[in-house]
């Protein structure tokens, strides 16, 4: 009786296990698709990061990048490459026509590469905005990225009799040849040419794992999933806005607006449009970087402290010295550090390309902002598109206020702080005054040197 019960229990356990296994087999595989069909930039970086997070959140079995790009920003491509290599969900790519330059680096990071017939991959030389190759230090960095990405996929062990050899799944030398024109690999590329593979060539040399005409064909025929559920990433308008604001050109413009707004606010009485423009520009500069995890609290605080020091230098301390210089340095440092992907005070993971890009963005914004403020200051009030910014009414026929006589040489008291303008009390009467001897504290004895344009010009009386 016990024997029969044991056999029945074993049969029931086997039936349950078979049912579970059958249920697992019949359940559709979850494939998450991310489309990147534009230039590799901050927007595409945001798409990939959010897409990988969503794929992991829904428990996707694989991520498929639908790629068609001619390249883009190297630092954005490097961040995307790293995200793919360390993604807990395996990432595949379907190259739908082009994977050039930065696109080749991203594709190389994926577990499997699939291509459409007639597609190409390669041509990863680093170039500037005009298409000219950058100096060798940039090419060297790109060559190392391509080699390291190829090496990350490891090697296969081949045993033939008593001989054991190891073969790279993706040859690092071939990956480097996509950057370096000096590389020469027999039967693949001659020296003086940058390597670019067609789909068939990529299959032959291990840089493509299959050719298909559509995403559905990739999943069913090449990845081997007959029953699957395809979910696509849908970016929001906020993703596009963040990507636009994080574009290097836009970041330089925002720095320009911050500097210009602060300068013109200091030149005008009260609080007005320039300060509002500077605040909005600062928010648009720092907020996307903070959301993306690039800008940390201490980096933004560094910028705010720089502003505070400049304000103290202008409104509290006479002249412009160490406090003002420190404020400017801290402001620029805040701009710069927010662009680097450091972790607190650890900058070991920041590459030379990231540093160079951050330097270029900040210098462009600061220099252009300074030049723009000088140019606008010189033209406000003149004829042209800025003629309405300043008062330019025709005062012909107006009755002039009688000019007081005998003010020159008289002594008075600074009724407010003069830095250099303020109020001066002379003979019991208040005048608009301008200091000709630097910063003058309220209550300091002054002497009138001249009277022009309804203002008294004064100098501080030396105290013995």
Descriptors:
14 helices; 464 residues; alpha/beta; 14 strands; 45% helix; elongated; five-stranded mixed barrel
What does this molecule look like?
The chain has 14 helices and 14 strands. It is of the alpha/beta class. The strands form 3 sheets. Strands 1, 2, 3, 4, 5, 8 and 9 form a 7-stranded mixed beta sheet that branches. The protein has a 5-stranded mixed beta barrel with strand order 10-11-12-14-13. A two-stranded antiparallel ribbon has the order 6-7. A hairpin with a 2-residue loop joins strand 11 and strand 12 (429-435). Helix 2 packs parallel to helix 3 and helix 10 runs parallel beside helix 14 (352-379). The termini are far apart. 32% of the residues are buried. Mean pLDDT is 82; it is low at 15-25 and 381-386.
């Amino acid at each position: 009786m016990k024997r029969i019960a044991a056999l029945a229990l074993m049969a029931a356990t086997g039936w349950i296990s078979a049912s579970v296994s059958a249920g697992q087999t019949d359940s559709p595989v979850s494939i998450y698709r991310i489309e990147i069909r534009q230039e590799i930039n901050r927007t595409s970086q945001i798409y990939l990061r959010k897409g990988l997070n969503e794929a992991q959140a829904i428990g996707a079995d694989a991520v498929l990048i639908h790629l068609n790009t001619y390249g883009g920003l190297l630092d954005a491509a490097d961040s995307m490459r790293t995200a793919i290599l360390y993604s807990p969900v395996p990432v595949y790519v379907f190259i739908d026509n082009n994977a050039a330059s930065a696109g080749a680096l991203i594709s190389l990071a994926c577990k499997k590469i699939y291509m459409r017939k007639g597609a190409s991959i390669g041509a990863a030389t680093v170039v500037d905005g005009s298409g000219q190759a950058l100096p060798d230090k940039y090419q060297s960095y790109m060559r190392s990225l391509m080699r390291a990405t190829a090496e990350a996929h490891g090697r296969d062990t081949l045993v033939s009799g008593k001989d054991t050899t190891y073969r790279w799944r993706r040859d690092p030398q071939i990956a480097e040849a996509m950057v370096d024109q000096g590389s020469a690999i027999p039967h693949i590329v001659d020296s003086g040419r940058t390597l670019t593979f067609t789909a068939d060539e990529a299959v032959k040399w291990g840089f493509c794992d299959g050719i298909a005409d559509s995403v559905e064909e990739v999943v069913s025929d090449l990845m081997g999933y007959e029953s699957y559920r395809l979910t696509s990433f849908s970016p929001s308008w906020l993703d596009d806005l963040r990507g636009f604001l994080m574009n290097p050109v836009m970041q330089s413009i925002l720095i320009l607006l911050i500097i210009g707004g602060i300068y013109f606010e200091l030149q005008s009485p009260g609080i007005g449009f320039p300060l509002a423009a500077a605040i909005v520009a600062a928010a648009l500069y720092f907020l996307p970087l903070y959301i993306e995890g690039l800008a940390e609290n201490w980096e933004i605080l560094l910028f705010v402290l720089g502003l505070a020091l400049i304000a103290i230098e202008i409104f509290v301390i006479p002249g412009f010295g160490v406090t003002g210089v420190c404020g400017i340095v801290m402001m620029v440092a805040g701009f710069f550090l927010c662009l680097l992907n450091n972790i607190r005070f650890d900058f070991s993971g920041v590459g030379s390309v990231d540093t160079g890009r951050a330097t270029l963005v900040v210098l462009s914004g600061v220099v252009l902002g300074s030049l723009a403020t000088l140019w606008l200051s010189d033209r406000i009030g003149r004829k042209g598109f800025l003629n309405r910014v300043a008062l330019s009414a025709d005062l012909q026929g107006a009755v002039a206020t009688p000019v007081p006589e005998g003010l020159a040489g008289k002594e008075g008291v600074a009724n407010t702080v003069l830095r250099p303008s303020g109020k001066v009390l002379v003979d019991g009467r208040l005048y608009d005054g301008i200091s000709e001897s630097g910063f003058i504290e309220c209550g300091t004895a002054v002497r009138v040197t001249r009277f022009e344009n309804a203002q008294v010009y004064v100098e501080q009386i030396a105290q013995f």
